[in-house]
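Lab notebook: predicted structure, single chain.

Context: the supervisor wants predicted structures on file for every construct in the current expression panel, including those that have not yet been purified. This is the next one on the list. No modifications to the sequence; it matches the entry in the shared construct table.
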Amino acid sequence: MESARVPSPNRYDWRALCPSRAKLARRPDVTIWWTDHANDERQSDGIAKIDVHSMLKRCSVSNVEDTDGEEGWRAEGTDIDGRRIAAIVVAYEDDPPEIKIVTTWAHKLK
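Prediction complete. Output recorded below exactly as produced.
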């Protein structure tokens, strides 16, 4: 008897974990804003804002954690050149919806 493949408990597809949040980044009325720390880290790793915004629309979530009392999601994906990037984000499903980018980084090549 063949067993079904069970995904790793440390890696979740954002769409499977919470479908409404997956759609949030793709909504035309969403406001995405950056903390000063996120902007500093983005610039030091040479990541364009548009690459992070695009990654959020098709990312997977590898961790959900407490971020200063809020539910932070580690979103991971790639930029336009295929470089792996990640961001810690907090989603607010208000009207209008908002996504706060707490920090972001590029994975270093090994």
